[in-house]
Amino acid sequence: MSKDEATIAVYDARADDYANAFADAADDPALKRFMGRLPRGAAVLDLGCGPGTQAAAMQARGFQVTATDASAAMVVKARAHQGVIVRQAGFGDLGDHNVYDGVWANFSLLHVARADLAGHLSRIAAALKLGGVFHIGMKTGEGEHGDQLGRFYTYYSIAELRDHLGAAGFEVIEEVEGEGAGLAGTVDPWVEMLARR
Ligand SMILES: C[S@@+](CC[C@H](N)C(=O)[O-])C[C@H]1O[C@@H](n2cnc3c(N)ncnc32)[C@H](O)[C@@H]1O
Q1: What would the pLDDT profile of 41-58 be if each residue is shown by its tens digit?
Q2: What is the pLDDT of residue 3?
Q3: pLDDT digit string (tens) for 67-81?
Q4: How far is the CA of 123 from the centre of ligand 1 (A)?
Q5: Is 18 exposed, middle or buried (CB count within 10 Å of its CB: 0-12, 13-18, 19+)?
Q6: Which of 124, 131, 123, 197 lies closest to 166 in space, CA to CA?
Q7: How many angstroms does the Cα of residue 192 sit away from the middle of ligand 1?
Q8: Which residues, in sequence order, are CB contacts of 89 under 8 Å at separation 6+?
Q9: Could you say which DSSP state residue 21 is in?
Q10: What is the mean pLDDT of residues 1-14?
Q11: What's the gap in Å between 3 CA and the centre of ligand 1?
């Protein structure tokens, strides 16, 4: 399992706080846009699913959802949602080929080192069927550093992320920028990209 232990320890300790802070995550407009691009009964992977609120919303829409997260406490919370298959796994454990119609990686891949992102995007592309849809949410900015809670973050420019997606074989089909407060309480800029394999 490839993961930053200190980051996962924060999510293990704060899983309840996280779930409460983002209890309305099922109403995320990006989730609605993503689901709108999927075929009926689509097979979806929620990569870095956290407490599983969005995985459960996708399951409730009739999709077949597999959800993974490296945090044991998050996995316990995600398993409380009926019907979702939940596995404790790091991003580097993804080894599926041509299985999913959609991969949803919402503000999770921002916890990997910049040098490792290309490998994770290649694995995601391989796991998707041709024509499959990929959502990625990331914080924008520069550098790699820890936040006030001790979580490791990598920040990207939008151009850099576009290049990464292109190099992994994706065509970007939607981009939305915004800003918002996360678990640490700071207001940070972000980008959400929807891409097709
Ligand atoms: C900011 S939360 C996002 C959770 C969820 N996707 C959401 O939008 O609410 C980041 C999640 O990524 C998970 N995570 C961090 N590094 C990971 C890794 N290397 N492999 C798998 N999951 C990881 C954390 O445990 C946490 O649940």
Answers
A1: 999 999 999 999 999 999
A2: 83
A3: 999 999 999 999 999
A4: 17
A5: buried
A6: 197
A7: 15
A8: 1, 68, 69, 70
A9: H
A10: 90
A11: 10
Structure tokens at 44: 């979806």
Q: Is 24 exposed, middle or buried (0-12, 13-18, 19+ CB in 10 A)?
A: exposed
Instruction: Give the pair of three-digit tokens for residue 123.
Output: 């694995």
Structure tokens at 190: 């972000």
The answer to whether 187 touches 124, Cβ cutoff 8 Å, is: no
Q: Which residues pair with 172 in a beta bridge?
A: 195
The DSSP secondary structure of the chain, one letter per residue, reads ----HHHHHHHHHTHHHHHHHTTTGGG-HHHHHHHHTSPTT-EEEEET-TTSHHHHHHHHTT-EEEEEES-HHHHHHHHTSTT-EEEE--GGG----S-EEEEEEES-GGGS-HHHHHHHHHHHHHHEEEEEEEEEEEEBSSSEEE-TTS-EEE-B-HHHHHHHHHHTT-EEEEEEEEEEE-TT--EEEEEEEEEE-
Domain 5-196 in CATH 3.40.50.150:
yes
Q: Are 161 and 194 in contact (CB under 8 A)?
A: no
Contact 118, 168 (CB under 8 A): yes
Select from 2, 31, 69 the residue to mutate for testing ligand 1; criterion: most ligand atoms less than 8 Å from CB.
Answer: 69
Q: What whole-number distance in Å separates Cα of residue 117 and Cα of residue 134?
A: 14
Residue length of the chain? 197
Domain ranges, ordered by start, for the chain: 5-196
